What we know:
Elements: H1 2-15, E1 25-30, H2 38-54, E2 58-63, H3 71-79, E3 85-88, H4 92-95, H5 111-132, E4 135-150, E5 165-168, H6 172-180, E6 184-187, H7 193-198, E7 204-208, H8 209-214, E8 223-226, E9 231-239, H9 240-245, H10 248-282, E10 286-289, H11 292-297, H12 300-309, H13 313-323
Parallel strand pairs: 1-2, 1-3, 5-6, 5-7, 8-10
Antiparallel strand pairs: 3-9, 4-7, 4-8, 4-9
This protein binds (2R,3R)-2,3,4-trihydroxybutanoic acid.
Pfam family, one: DctP
Signal peptide: 1-23
Keywords: Signal, Transport
Amino acid sequence: xLIKRLITGMTLLLSLGSPVSQxxxxxxxxxxxxxxxxxxxxxxxxxxxxxxxxxxxxQVEYYSDxxxxxxxxxxxxxxxxxxxxxxxxxxxxxxVPEFALFDMPFLVRDRxxxxxxxxxxxxxxLAAAARRHGLHIISTWENGFRQISNNSxxxxxxxxxxxxxxxxxxxxxxxxMFASWGAKPTQMPxxxxxxxxxTGEVDxxxxxxxxxxxxxxxxxxxxxxxxxxxxxxxxxxxxxSSWQQLPAAVQAAITEVAADAQRWSFAEGARQDTRLLKSLxxxxxxxxxxxxxxxxxxxxxxxxxxxxxxxGGDALIERVMDLAGH
Length: 326
Ligand code: EAX
């Protein structure tokens, strides 16, 4: 009996390889947005599908709501290996100037345009620029078309922004945009925003509807002005050196599951925008549309700065424009 047990045990060990020596590897993914927002939902869906694909040898852990820090902290944590994946949005332009392409007002027309920009420009030129800064761009997901909210008045033209303290992400480019339009921009992490609006530290902010609703900003904002001033992508990002160390099969799994998450996030983003506009209105927020023409006229300085400051910036803008309407 004892011998039979021993033999069974040994056979089991042999057939499993050497189970004792193989520790479970952790893949930690984090974001600065809320679990409830589109970026949060996309990251959760991605994490679950990646876990299913990788099996027991890997443990995929997802942390939302800046639990592991805001996007700036997450970039540091990627670089020092504390986390493996993060989703990074507007602040990417503070790291890699070429990404300020997504701070050119009214440049991205719609999601179809964005898909072309993704394959022709992001995954080629911008991914190469990111690599020069030690970052590996895995996939472009949707953060969303950004709108302006505030507590003072409906924003119709840049004039209406005069003197308003508007929170922007921690990137000089969004600040420049809002300063050009007459506002007083204040940079701060997203996780501080609700309290800053509640206490009146700032009057307003600009974000996709999904982030506004995800952080319940409608509870501390009176006016929502539909501007679609920029489309913010959110990039699933790794540090380039830790990415290179991953086994090829894991790299392939992450890349493929992320591509599926991209398709889902674009489709879901369009659906949610329509639904959220109604529900934010029902929540008592006063909604209006901005006068695009006056905003476009006041945006020249932002384009000029990009062309001056970013090498090849002019050509990048032209290529994006060429892809519109294809
Ligand atoms: O999670 O900081 C911001 O406003 C960005 O939209 C960010 O993605 C929020």
